[in-house]
Amino acid sequence: MFRKVLVANRGEIARRVVRTLRALGIASVAVYSDADIDAPHVREADEAYRLGPGPITQSYLHVEALLDAARASRAEAIHPGYGMLSEKAEFAERCEAAGLTFIGPAPAAIRAMGSKLGARQLMREASVPIVPGALSPCDDHQAAHALAEELGYPVLVKASGGGGGIGMQVVRQSIALAGALESCRRVAERYFGDDTVYIEKYIERPRHVEIQVIGDARGHVLALHERECSIQRRHQKVIEEALSPAVTPELRRRMEEAAVIGAEAINYVNAGTLEFIVDEHGEFYFMEMNTRLQVEHPVTEMITGLDLVAEQLRVAAGEPLSFDAAPAARGHAIECRIYAEDPKRLLPSPGTIESIAWPELDHVRVDHGVEAGYTVTPYYDPMLAKVIAWGEARADALRRMIEALNQTRIDGIKTNIPVLLAIARHPSFASGQYDTGFIDSHGILASI
Fold first, then answer.
1. pTM surpassing 0.90?
2. S-S: 132 plus which of 24, 27, 201, 331, CB 3.0-4.6 Å?
3. Are residues 152 and 220 in the same domain?
4. How many helices (H) and strands (E) does the chain have?
5. Are residue 140 and residue 20 in the same domain, yes or no?
6. What residues have CB less than 8 Å from 218, skipping those under 6 apart?
C-alpha cells in the first residue's frame, strides 16, 4: 500500500479522499489555489502545496504544478477525485512517466471511453445495447438526413467529445436538422476542441440509470448495483438514489451483466460507472462510461457498506479487491446535491457564507467542503455539499432526507435547498414515478 498520496482536487471530494487516507494510515497531500488557501481540505491534509491563482486553468488543471507538488512532497500516487483531470488520459500518462501511480484506470481505458462515438462502437462490438444511431461522424448533411429519417424523429445531435449536455440538441423536424448539426459542431469545437458530432434516436421520457463497476488487476470485475440519476437540471444530476425504484430484479441482472461485459471489453481496472438510458418499456441502452469515481458514489457505499475510495487505493496498489462478490444491497439511500445557486433560475450564486448548520441525524451523511466565512467564487463548480440519507425502505430514506434538508442552513448565499425540498415532497417523486424531465414537467421551479 502507498505511504503518501496527493489529492489532485478540491472541496468535498478532496476531504472525502483525505478521510479514507487517514483511516488507512496513509499520509495525505492537498493542493490549493489562491482562492482556496483557507479551505477545509487544505487544513485537513498532512501537507499542502500551492498550485497558482484562482482560475482553474492556472491551478487545478495546471499539470506541471501538480507534478511539481507531487515531487516536492515525495508522494507515491495521485488520486484525481472526479472532474478536473480525472478523465484526462494525458494526465494519467504524465503521472506514470513521472513515476507516480495514477489512482484510476489505465490511460488506454480512459481514452477508449473519452469519445462517445468510439465508446458506442466498442460497446456494440461487445454486444452491450446502445441507442440506435450513427457509429461514425455525421459530416455529410445528406447522409445525416437519411439516417434521421431511418431512425424516425425526434433525433438527438450530440458532440462526440462532450458531456454535461453541452453540444447536444433535440431535433423534432427534418427542417431543423442542418441547423442543429452546425450549432452543435460550433459548440463542440469551442468547448472540447473537437467538432465531431453524430446522431442517435431521441428517447422520450427516459430514466437515467447507471451501474457502478470496479475491477482489479487480476481481471476481477464486479457490478455494485445501480443508481437512479433521473432528477436533473440542465442535464446535470441533482438527486440520486440506490436502488432505483424503477428497476426490477430481472432488469438489474441484465444491466449489471452488460456493465461487466462493457468494462471487461476495455480491460477496465479501478472504479468506473456505465451510464444507461432506460425507456418506458424497460429497455436499456448504453450512453457513456465515466472512468472515475462518481459524485454520487456515497449512495452505493450506504447500501453496500463499502468504502469505494479504499477499494480504489487497494486496486491501484496492485492488491485484489477486498471482496469476492458484490455485497447484497441493504436498505435504500438518497443523495441531494446542494449548490450555491439561485433556486428560481438555477444560476450560480457566489458570495461569502455567513453561517452554516448541517443536520445531525442517524443514518445521514454530509460530504461538504465549506464552512462559515468561506467565499464561494465563480472559478469552480458551485456544488457545496452532498446530503445522503439511508433508510430500511425508500420511504424511510426519503422521510429522513426531508428532515435533513429542513435542518440544513447556509446563510449569506442562495442555495438550491428549496428546489430539493420541493422535489422530495412531490407525490410523483415519492411514488418513484419520474423521468429526466421531472423538474420542468412538474413545474418545480414555479412552485418555489
1. yes
2. 201
3. no
4. 15, 20
5. no
6. 320
Local confidence pLDDT in tens for the 448 residues of the chain:
999 999 999 999 999 999 999 999 999 999 999 999 999 999 999 999 999 999 999 999 999 999 999 999 999 999 999 999 999 999 999 999 999 999 999 999 999 999 999 999 999 999 999 999 999 999 888 999 999 999 999 999 999 887 777 889 999 999 999 999 999 999 989 888 889 999 999 999 999 999 999 999 999 999 999 999 999 998 899 999 999 999 999 999 999 999 999 999 999 999 999 999 999 999 999 999 999 999 999 999 999 999 999 999 999 999 999 999 999 999 999 999 999 999 998 899 999 999 999 999 999 999 999 999 999 999 999 999 999 999 999 999 999 999 999 999 999 999 999 999 999 999 999 999 999 999 999 999 999 8
Residue of 292, 314, 365, 400 with catalytic role:
292
Looking at residue 28, which CATH number applies to its domain? 3.40.50.20
Residues 310 and 332 in one domain: yes
Quote the cell numbers at residue 363. Answer: 443514518
Indicate if 99 and 148 belong to the same structural domain: no
Q: Residue 145 is part of which domain span?
A: 132-201
